[in-house]
Amino acid sequence: MKIRIGLLCIILLLFATASSANGTRGEGYGGFSTGLNLIDVEDLNRSTAIHNLEFGDQQWALGGLAFRLVGPGVILGGEGYGFSQEVSGDTMTGTLSGGYGFFNVGYEVFRKKDFFAYPFIGIGGGGYSLKLVQDMDVPDAQTLINDANRMVEIERGAFLLELGLGAGYLIDMSGLDKKKESAERGGLFFGFRAGYILDPASPSWSFAGSKVRNGPDLKGNIFFVTLQFGGGRGER
Question: What is the pTM of this model?
Answer without folding.
Answer: 0.83
